[in-house]
Amino acid sequence: MSLTPEQVRHVALLARIGLEPGDEDFYAEQLSGILAHIDRLQQVNTDDIPPTAQVVEIVNQLREDEPRPCLTQAEALSNAPVAVNGFFRVPSIQEET
Amino acid sequence: MDTTRLTITELQALLRARELSTKDLLEEHQERIENVDDHVKAFLRLTPELAAEQSAAADRALKAGEAGALAGIPVAVKDVLCVRGVETTAGSQILRGFRPPYTGTAVGRLFAAGAVMVGVTNCDEFAMGSSTENSGYFPTHNPWALDRVPGGSSGGSAAAVAAGESVFAVGTDTGGSIRQPAALCGVVGMKPTYGRVSRYGLIAFASSLDQVGPFARTVEDCAIVLEAMAGHDPLDATSSDRANDVRRDFEAGVKGMKLGVPREYYEVEGIEPGVKAAIAKALEALQGAGAEVVNVSLPHTDYGLAAYYIIAPAECSSNLARFDGVKYGMSDQDAANVTDAYMQTRRLGFGTEVRRRVMLGTYALSSGYYDAYYVKAQKIRTLIKRDFDSAFEKCDAIVSATSPTVAFPLGARTQDPLSMYLCDVLTLGGNLAGLPGISVPCGLSEDLPVGLQVLAPQWREDVVLRVARAYEVVSGVKAEVAPL
Fold first, then answer.
1. pLDDT exceeds cutoff 70 at B31
2. In what order do the strands lie in the sheet with B116-121?
3. pLDDT higher than 70, residue A96
């Protein structure tokens, strides 16, 4: 399977990664090269094989739902690029009407 | 006495006999860093204030007779493990300036045992790479040949130990990122069973594969450090509460043990004749010590790399969504809207390889491709795990080369991502199956270090360490400090 520059644009938008001029062709070529290797997976018959998401033996680790110490608001905001009134600030999500 | 060549065991004896002070031990390592790190570039940043404080505390504990197993011992910490107040960036520009408000469990346990942090080591950005050339800051150089890579992604940690800049170091291994640089730098590096060491406070790359582990110059030092880090942590639900018995039978030797030799690992694409010869010699030494070498098969080896390069990028595309310029790190504040702000921040903050993997993972998880790629790779993961299960019915441990090649020149593989990915072809199976593994130095090829890998069933770190220790004893091969 190979990736077209249009598909790279779509994937980049899904991944929220901006593209500079030339990036589409660069990544189309590189990702296609990697996918050409990955295509060998299709040679293996896996019809009756269950998927493995993780290899831990532990299931359903539960704990009591009790309050416990955590970061203070000031600590949580200490690395914020911009904090205002105890909140993280982001550019507007909705346009003003 | 040059303390930068000594082991944890040797140093503890001197410290406890009051023949060496923690202050002198720290200063000798800081001096060594001063003298050699301009060439090696193992460290992204040094932590002299924290080191002085920890060294003084270790001294007080020694005097009071309450010292932990690592009291006063200098350690270097990979730039993916959060330490409260110490800039931690995952080798990425996107996290420049980030000071974690907390310390991760694995490193916190080392500190509790008395370790003294000398600095933060370089790595491939977000631990994605096999040469440390993907660092967002600068490449690290192999202490044995400065024009060559140290391996990666934990290349700074491996190089720091090989160069005598720290007695031991901490790294992380997602597809070989401890074992491969250990091999290329001629030190011992160990990846524990998935779940043995808490991942709390580790900046996540691929959560079902990541493990924290030690680098040192002897197998015993590795065992001591692992023992100090291991164990259940309520803050990591995947950490196990199994007994911390990793040093059980440490000196028992390999007499009567069955060591599996998987044909596929010895004929892997690109394996160098000098590496094969060093491994053959290591097998002879182990046989001489009474081990029986048996043939085993890992028939899906050829599909491991492909499965890994779906699963790891898929997990990373999800994990790295948090780097959005809102909560920490780089941020584009001039964007017209929030989507543009995300996209600009991530275009500027992430390097080429990280963007490549995030996009690959996003593609593999996207509508229409999820079954063909992600689910397919997960099924192959099942087959790879079953391969190991079958092999371990016939043997106690599997031995092979750690890396198909010795350290390669800087720049040799940066243009071709797939050639870089092939560095991990012998190690990533251990991550997919969650196995413990180690790399120990086993001689030279072309005057460069070769690593012998030992893999064992899940939770059998004791077997990994016992075989590696037996090899160290019978071969007489010891990790040396590079003459810089």
1. yes
2. B43-46, B116-121, B74-78, B168-173, B211-216, B188-191, B437-445, B448-455, B397-401, B258-262, B292-296
3. no
Active site (annotated) includes residue B78: yes
- Its pTM stands at 0.97
CA B323 remoteness from chain centre: 24
Q: Say what the pLDDT of residue B107 is.
A: 98
B3-252+466-475 has CATH 3.30.70.2740 classification: no
Closest CA to A73 of A87, A61, A63: A87
pLDDT for residue A97: 63
pLDDT tens-place string over residues B358-389:
999 999 999 999 999 999 999 999 999 999 99
Q: What is the pLDDT of residue B293?
A: 98
Active site residue B177: yes
Q: Is residue A77 in some structural domain?
A: no
Considering only CA atoms, which of B150, B165, B241, B233 is closest in space to residue B198?
A: B233
Segments making up each domain of chain B, as ranges: 3-252+466-475
Which among B177, B317, B400, B475 is annotated as catalytic?
Answer: B177
Compute the Cα dihedral for B302, B154, B109, B31 and give only its sign. Answer: positive
Give per-residue pLDDT as tens, B180-232.
999 999 999 999 999 999 999 999 999 999 999 999 999 999 999 999 999 99
Counting the structural domains of chain A, the total is 1
Beta strands B74-78 and B292-296 are: unpaired
Cβ contacts of residue A6 below 8 Å, gap of 6+? none
CB atoms within 10 A of CB B11: 21
Q: Is residue A54 part of a domain?
A: no
Domain that holds residue A13: 5-43
DSSP H helices, B206-337, are 219-229, 263-266, 273-288, 301-319
Nearest beta carbon to residue B359 from set A12, A61, A71: A12
d(CA B162, CA A48): 47
Interface test with B, best of A9, A11, A25, A89 (most B CBs within 10 A): A11
Which residues from B are below 8 Å from A30, CB to CB?
356, 417
